[in-house]
Design brief:
single chain; about 230 residues; alpha/beta; Rossmann fold; six-stranded mixed sheet; four-stranded antiparallel sheet; 10 strands; about 30% helix; globular; binds adenosine-5'-triphosphate; binds magnesium ion
Length: about 230
């Protein structure tokens, strides 16, 4: 089953800049794909299109069973339940605790209180930061904050997780922990697309790599598992 499909997608911003030119891409259910490319190549723009935060200037986009371009406004919340996003700038609210930040997604989705509390605890345990739930974002390390943002993306059990540069500000060991966590989530069936600049990780993981440059796909390859991968942390 295809989880994400972009058909000849173009995105031109009001400024006249083309962020994406004629992109076609398919991601199957259960895949874990790295989206790479220099800064400004269009990675975040693709994610914003997939959650209907932006509309394309041309082309069609399908996510799960949603036709993104035709999706009525009122159905956007249902789409956002199915697509969890770990934003490049995290977007955690500084005046709320980690627990409050995560349960907020459940509240917006109208999940009953008791179930929302359970789901929030479950997500925090899954990413390994339940002991930090009463802390505020400023009291957490970069790796812990990244885990909190992943917990928020997972709390509504999405079909797809889009992780935008989730290892951006982390040291290599912590970056591996985050990638291994995403990999575990993927093994339980969630489709994952991760935008990254981390070549060390991209080269060591036996995963599909989609490369963007100036808004075009310049590479799409699936790596086979190699023997050297046993060195992987
Ligand atoms: N709201 C906007 N208005 C005008 N131009 C924009 C807007 N958002 C993005 N762009 C432009 O679109 C291009 C793609 O940006 P995008 O954020 O998708 O890149 P990226 O690959 O995520 O980069 P990075 O690796 O730095 O996160 C860039 O040239 C950027 O300047
Ligand atoms: Mg980006």
């Amino acid at each position: 089953m295809t989880m994400i499909r972009l058909d000849k997608v173009t995105k031109k911003f009001g400024t006249g800049a083309f962020a994406l030119s004629d992109i076609s891409l398919k991601v199957e259910k259960g895949e874990f794909v790295f989206l790479i490319g220099p800064t400004g190549s269009g990675k975040t723009t693709i994610f914003r299109l997939l959650i209907r935060d932006l509309l394309p200037t041309g082309g069609n986009i399908f996510v799960s069973d949603f036709d993104i371009v035709k999706l009525p406004h009122g159905k956007i919340p249902i789409l956002r339940k199915k697509v969890g996003v770990v934003f490049q700038d995290l977007k955690l609210l500084t005046d709320r605790t980690i627990f409050e930040n995560i349960i907020l997604s459940c509240e917006i989705a109208n999940i009953p209180k008791k179930e929302a509390i359970e789901k929030t605890h479950e997500a925090l345990k899954r990413v390994g930061i339940i002991e930090h739930k009463e802390k505020f974002p400023v009291q957490l390390s970069g790796g812990e904050l990244q885990r909190a943002a992943i917990a928020r993306a997972l709390v509504l059990s999405p079909e797809v997780v889009l992780a935008d540069e989730p290892t951006g500000n982390l040291d290599l060991a912590t970056s591996w922990e985050i990638v291994n966590l995403l990999s575990e989530i993927n093994k339980k069936g969630t489709t994952i697309v991760m935008a990254t600049h981390n070549t060390e990780i991209v080269n060591k993981m036996p995963l599909r790599i989609v490369g963007l440059d100036k808004g075009r796909i310049v590479r799409d390859e699936k790596k086979e598992e190699k023997k050297e991968d046993k060195n992987k942390k």
